[in-house]
Amino acid sequence: MDPSMLIPAGEAIPSPWALFEALLVLTFALHIVFMNLTVGSAVIAITGRLTGGQRELAHELGHRLPTTLALTVNLGVAPLLFVQVVYGQFLYTSSVLMAVFWLSAIAAVIVGYYCLYVHDAKFDSARGVSRLALLLSLACLFYTGFLLSNNMTLMLRPEAWTAYAENPRGTLLNLSDRTLWPRYLHMMLAAPAVAGLYVALIGGKKRRPDWVDHGLAWFTRLTMVQILIGGWLLMALPREVMLGFMGRDALATGVLGLSVLLGLAALMAGIQKKTAQASWLTFATILSMAVTRAQVRSLTLAPYFSPSSLGVTGEVSPLIVFVVSLILGLGAIAYMLKTYAKTAGRG
Questions:
Q1: Averaged pLDDT for residues 107-115
Q2: Which one of 114, 243, 289, 323 has the largest count of C-beta atoms within 10 Å of its C-beta?
Q3: Has residue 169 got a pLDDT over 50?
Q4: pLDDT of amino acid 347
């Protein structure tokens, strides 16, 4: 069967696709920052609790985790909507193919969120329950991330959709995809690395040099591992896509090269214990990698689809309302985080 026959027709969009793609990249990068802070902080906290070290740090991170998870979920809505606008015919199809697992992600996030509150509330009074709650929350977050990786890779493989004939029950996962595991690990290992910088920043603010050293150790060591995982992911891409990042496509090659350089610069800043510089360079790396991810999607779907083929209705008012709402919303979040940081600092 010709896989292209399985792809639904694309719907007309209100504004040029490039605007939605740019907003997708920006909002995805913001979502990833808070995802890293949440998952990574949970990893660092549970490691400290199980090894018996950095108990005070685990308590500090545990108190912040419900807030960062709430921000992760809320900031994840926008990029999910934007990818549906431009690539809806692919994402909706893959979501239906794995519908049972996809819908279970909602329950996993709710359970994980509740467990973070249990972990914080029972930290001193019921230590065993608190540790178990954090482990369960972390398992839920890892599970949700695995499902997201499955869906975002399955949507790029119309040739894999033919498996629906043998599995029409909505339980199809993209386990045969060579990019699935390196892509998933690239995301999950980045989390404690970025959270390590977060720990170092907290340590600097609270005048805890041991926290600074602990956080930078997480950041530098896992960033080195990330370089290897990134190489694995590049080699796992379909040949034509991989060649696009190795010189055949100037934009893809340039963005990937910039991402690598920014990542190496962040690593060097971390080794030199320049925490603030490493943090800004890491955010720039995340933003550049978000563009790289968009290039992977574009090059992979090129045989089947180009966003430029979508009709444009010219109704810009919904986009203007969204952009204004986004700016106001981000401003409100920034204000809340600033207020929260002052309150946490007094605590």
A1: 97
A2: 289
A3: yes
A4: 47
d(CA 331, CA 329): 5
Say what percent of the chain tops pLDDT 90. Answer: 81
Q: Please enumerate in sequence order all residues whose Cβ is within 8 A of that of 301, keeping only pairs 6 or more positions apart, or say none.
A: 87, 90, 156
Q: Closest Cα partner for 34 from 82, 66, 64, 75?
A: 75
Query: CA separation (Å) from 95 to 144, 222, 255?
Result: 14, 32, 29
The string of DSSP letters for 49-96 reads HHHT--HHHHHHHHHHHHHHHHHHHHHHHHHHHHHHHHHHHHHHHHHH
Q: Which residues face 335 on adjacent strands?
A: none
Going by the DSSP 8-state scheme, the letter that residue 52 receives in this structure is: T
Query: Which DSSP letter does residue 164 get?
Result: G
pLDDT at residue number 343: 66
pTM of the model: 0.92
Which H/E stretch holds residue 229? helix 209-236
311: Cα separation from own chain's centroid: 30
